[in-house]
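Suppose you are handed a protein chain with no further information: no name, no annotation, nothing but its sequence. What can you learn? This example shows the usual starting point.
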Amino acid sequence: MTVSYTPCKKHIAPNLSKLNGDGGISEIVRTDKNGKTCRMEVTQVPYCMGMCKTGEFGTYTTDFRQQNSSMCGYVNPKFEEITMSDCDEGVDPEIRIVKILDQDTECGCVPVPPKDQ
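A reasonable first move is to predict its three-dimensional structure. Written in structure tokens, the prediction is:
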């Protein structure tokens, strides 16, 4: 019997704030210690989705089994720094910079280390 599955790959979520009108998950808001804020719309949100083959097989060593586990995730994720420009006057400059996932980051099956490591 052959089992089919959707392989792990990158998808791009739409700008969800346009759908529900309240900012959704695609709006970034940062607030400094004085209550001043910076805001930014994220137009595309990348995410990984799909299945990865996972299995185990018997061995003759003390654990009597060997697992091969992986999950769909980012492969060598890269982040880019963006300076937010929609800020209240006098905002702390440190909150202007945010790191977001680079759009070129690839998705793939990432090994899951054993629990004891």
